[in-house]
Amino acid sequence: MAKKVQTDRRDFVKYSTLGLLGLVMGGGIVFSPYLEGKENKLRPPGAVPEKDFLALCIKCGQCLQVCPYHSIKLNDINKGTGEGTPFIDPNIRACYACNAVPCVLACPSGALDHKTEKAEDIRMGIAVLEFPDTCLGISRTPIPEGYDNKMIAFTKSVRNETPEEEELIKKFMGREGEACNLCADMCPVPNPLSAIAMVPDAKGGKRPEIYEGCIGCGACQDVCPTSTPSIVVKPRMTYEEYYGNKSQGIS
């Protein structure tokens, strides 16, 4: 009798565990598209479609190691799905579109497409003037005092500051009190006028206008001197998807 009870208990544990595992796996299948849908991170240059990216990325961190601007971070458990996968937060440091695209060259798994060979090949997202009411160019408000300190803080926090970062800081410096055109002036696209330009606004100032050459690197968001960036990047969105055939025009 005792032997039968022991056997029954073993079977109960075995099948209960299998059942629970099945529920967990089933739940993963059911809920993973929902979680994936909530994720909308700015991935490094050359990132393949998100579902494929999450499947291919081996979380090796090689892209992070070779980035000369320290732009790439690894996702942690508190930041949603894709733990350990690389992303870029342009509120901290944008991608500055290196000509050789070293992050792509360093990727061993195909998560970053090796067909992305130069800056013009990059398609990370599209820039959008999300908060025009705060845009300093539109309101004709000079770049505020302290902007230089804000922009160099991240670079100075990096132990191994690179020559590329030093050049970036030099370009940032000395603009306090000037009319703001930073988003257009700091665009790293080889032909920046194909991506963004300051155009007249109905309020008398100038506003950034986005064009098809925008690669979604986030530099405009990075350098925007407002407390919440007026211009932001929509990850994995194309110019056609956001702007379509509509003219951005003057408002």
Write up this protein:
- This protein has 251 residues and is an alpha+beta fold.
- β4 and β5 (206-210) form a beta hairpin.
- It is built from ten helices and six strands.
- The strands form three sheets. It has a two-stranded antiparallel ribbon with strand order 1-2. Strands 3-6 form a two-stranded antiparallel sheet. A two-stranded antiparallel ribbon has the order 4-5.
- It has helices spanning 2-38, 50-56, 62-66, 102-106, 136-139, 147-157, 163-172, 182-185, 219-223, 239-243, and strands at 72-74, 86-88, 125-129, 196-200, 206-210, 231-235.
- It starts with a helix and ends in an 8-residue tail after the last helix.
- α6 (147-157) runs antiparallel to α7.
- Keywords: Iron, Iron-sulfur, Membrane, Metal-binding, Transmembrane, Transmembrane helix.
- The chain crosses the membrane at residues 12-35.
